[in-house]
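Support request, priority: normal
Reporter: lab tech (M.K.)
Component: structure prediction queue

Hi team, I submitted a job for Integrase catalytic domain-containing protein from Trichonephila clavata yesterday, and the status page still shows it as pending. I've pasted the exact input below so you can check whether something in the sequence is tripping the parser. The sequence length should be 107 residues. Please let me know if I need to resubmit or if it's stuck on your end.
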Amino acid sequence: MLWTDSNIVLAWIQRSPEQLKTFIGNRIKIIQRLNKNCQWNHVSSNDNPADLISRGLNASDISSKQLWWYGPDFLKEELNVNPSDFEMITSDSDYLKELKPLAEMCF
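Reply from support: The job had stalled in the queue. We restarted it manually and it finished. Here are the results:
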């Protein structure tokens, strides 16, 4: 089971890399190849230890944070995450700008 704090990345991972612009598509292709049998899930910013510093926590205060040392509590429990619980982003501009434009030709 793999986790990301980015809904946009989750949406990209669920797409075919060929539908994405080259830079992102190449990286998604590698991620998909290396993690074929893994389930991807979202972790909220409040549960992400990496976000503690970006929220303004002083380095001297980090030693007292359980989240930093042990991760979010839900990782210690048996998880029953259904992939369909994730609602794919289809309108976020950061997501959309990496999709290849569709071209239609009429003859």
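The longest helix spans residues 22-34. The chain has a mean pLDDT of 83. Let us know if anything else looks off. Ticket resolved.
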